[in-house]
């Protein structure tokens, strides 16, 4: 007990000098710390990201790929980057040699390890948030099945985290094995490259760590800089999170180390350079405008519709123009924002309204309710649900039957589409965010390709999933 207390005290600062040592360590490894804080906030604090793991657990290979990405891309990069930043900092190494403190020695060893482990903790907490966020729905057994799958996912994540802890603790011993020594000898160019940049590890002059960071950066950054829509197909939603968090960590850590070595604000300078280039050559936020007349084969009416005209059209649709006092009550939908989750919930509620109206009044059916729908006022993600609803209602037949033709959508939780709620949920269950999140090109044309690709993606969803209007072309 006394030995445990003595070891624990090594990690507790007992003087102002040790407090400044701890602050210095966090300042040197500020890039890995910042990447972890960003990932923790995204996975555990952002409401729109609480359901990322629910979709992930539906596929075993996606769970395996996600944990491999967390292990090698996020956790290992965080640990190695923090370790190398402390090993290569001349002023920090001089301070360690001068003080010869057990506290600073223990902190520089375990803080990088702790940062790597905390990435798995963030995933575990995110899974728990996903469980707590599961709604009460009528489908019997769905919630219990998802909860059990998330519990197994947590167990598997904990086991992978244990493997990671074993690896970082035994890393020095593993580096002495013959395969790792031979790999280190064959990758001497990594050390030569670091020396040219003025960086050289003082404690562990091996090449495997820097090589791993370089490989992660080249592969992940290369993937992210390819077509964003293609990346969204390869790494949809949850799979893209560790990729986004770990891809730029090696490069930014390298800039941070160079800045510490030359005592210059390199990262700030690079950010300022990009700002100047954006000012000179323009940003990549241009939106592609279409020729509406060419798309519709007619000149569209772009004039704002007065409220009185909208009321007249609604009265005509409900056939009560002769006696407006007998018109039914209008239905007005107000939808809040909240990314694609808001769109899904908006469409789901409207679908539920279309399906259950007959239970309240036998005279009502989906077609009658659709005619009573006067307006949908929505912002941000809620607008997506409104647009999908309008597109689906425009393709419904005279009897008001749901207009989806794709019977087994891939991202929706149900097995088959049987009613309006199923149809609208299936339409809005698509991945509309990953391609935007991974877009990292600096060229002006990159944004144009992204906008065009996103528009094509939404158009494919509507065109593939809904029947044609009036039996004609979509």
Features of this protein?
single chain; 2% strand; mainly alpha; 474 residues; two-stranded parallel ribbon; 24 helices
Question: What do you see in this structure?
Answer:
Helices cover 67% and strands 2% of the residues. The chain has 474 residues and is an all-alpha fold. The chain folds into 2 domains: 2-135 and 142-275, no CATH class; 292-430, no CATH class. It has a two-stranded parallel ribbon with strand order 1-2. The longest helix is centred in the first third of the chain and has 31 residues, at 102-132.
Secondary structure elements and their pairing?
Elements: H1 2-9, H2 16-28, H3 30-44, H4 52-56, H5 60-87, H6 90-99, H7 102-132, H8 142-169, H9 171-175, H10 178-186, H11 188-196, H12 208-224, H13 228-234, H14 240-247, H15 249-262, H16 266-281, H17 292-296, H18 307-317, E1 331-335, H19 339-360, H20 366-372, E2 373-378, H21 381-394, H22 420-428, H23 434-437, H24 444-465
Parallel strand pairs: 1-2
Helix pairs in contact: 2-7, 3-5, 3-7, 3-14, 5-7, 5-8, 5-12, 5-14, 5-15, 7-8, 12-14, 19-20, 19-21, 19-22, 21-22
Question: Looking at the structure, what is the overall shape?
Answer: elongated
* Relative helix content: 55-70%
Major beta sheet, specifics?
2 strands, parallel
* Gyration radius, rounded: 28 Å
The secondary structure category is mainly alpha
In total, how many beta strands?
Answer: 2
Mean pLDDT: 78
Number of helices: 24
**Strand order of the biggest β-sheet:** 1-2
Low-confidence stretches: 440-456
Order of helices and strands: HHHHHHHHHHHHHHHHHHEHHEHHHH
- Strand-residue proportion: under 5%
Could you tell me how far the N terminus lies from the C terminus, measured between alpha carbons in angstroms? Answer: 75 Å
Number of domains: 2
């Amino acid at each position: 007990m006394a030995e445990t207390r003595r070891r624990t005290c090594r990690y507790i600062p007992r003087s102002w000098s040790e407090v400044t040592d701890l602050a210095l360590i966090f300042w040197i490894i500020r890039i890995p710390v910042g990447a972890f804080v960003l990932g923790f906030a995204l996975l555990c604090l952002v409401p729109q990201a609480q359901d990322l793991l629910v979709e992930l657990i539906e596929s075993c290979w996606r769970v395996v790929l996600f944990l491999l990405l967390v292990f090698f891309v996020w956790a290992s990069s965080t640990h190695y980057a923090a370790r190398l930043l402390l090993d290569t900092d001349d002023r920090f190494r001089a301070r360690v040699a001068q003080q010869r403190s057990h506290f600073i020695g223990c902190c520089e060893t375990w803080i990088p390890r702790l940062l790597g482990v905390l990435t798995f903790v963030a995933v575990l907490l995110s899974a728990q948030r996903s469980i707590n966020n599961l709604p009460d729905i009528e489908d019997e057994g769905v919630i219990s099945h998802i909860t059990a799958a998330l519990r197994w996912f947590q167990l598997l994540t904990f086991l992978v985290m244990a493997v990671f802890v074993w690896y970082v603790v035994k890393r020095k011993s593993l580096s002495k094995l013959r395969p790792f020594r031979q790999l280190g000898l064959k990758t001497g160019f990594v050390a030569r490259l670091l020396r040219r940049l003025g960086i050289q590890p003082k404690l562990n002059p091996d090449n495997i760590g820097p090589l791993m960071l370089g490989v992660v950066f080249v592969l992940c950054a290369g993937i992210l800089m390819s077509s964003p829509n293609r990346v969204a197909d390869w790494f949809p939603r949850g799979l893209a999170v560790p990729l986004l968090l770990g891809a730029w960590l090696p490069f930014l850590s390298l800039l941070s180390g160079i800045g510490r070595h030359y005592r210059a604000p390199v990262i700030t300078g690079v950010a300022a350079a990009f700002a100047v280039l954006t000012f000179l050559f323009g940003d990549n936020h241009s939106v592609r405008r279409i020729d509406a007349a060419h798309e519709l084969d007619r000149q569209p009416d772009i004039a704002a519709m007065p409220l009185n005209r909208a009321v007249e059209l609604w009265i005509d649709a409900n056939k009560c123009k002769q006696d407006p006092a007998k018109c039914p009550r209008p239905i007005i939908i107000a939808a809040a924002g909240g990314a694609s989750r808001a769109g899904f919930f908006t469409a789901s509620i409207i679908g539920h309204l279309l399906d259950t109206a007959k239970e309240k009044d036998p005279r009502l059916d989906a077609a009658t309710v659709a005619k009573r729908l006067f307006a949908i006022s929505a912002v941000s993600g809620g607008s997506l649900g409104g647009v999908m609803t309008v597109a689906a209602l425009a393709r419904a037949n005279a009897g008001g039957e749901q207009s989806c033709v794709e019977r087994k959508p891939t991202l929706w939780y149900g097995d088959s589409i049987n009613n309006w709620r199923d149809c609208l949920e299936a339409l809005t269950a698509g991945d509309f965010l990953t391609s935007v999140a991974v877009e990292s090109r600096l060229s002006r044309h990159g944004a144009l390709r992204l906008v065009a690709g996103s528009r094509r993606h939404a158009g494919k969803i509507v065109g593939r999933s809904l029947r044609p209007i009036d039996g004609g072309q979509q």
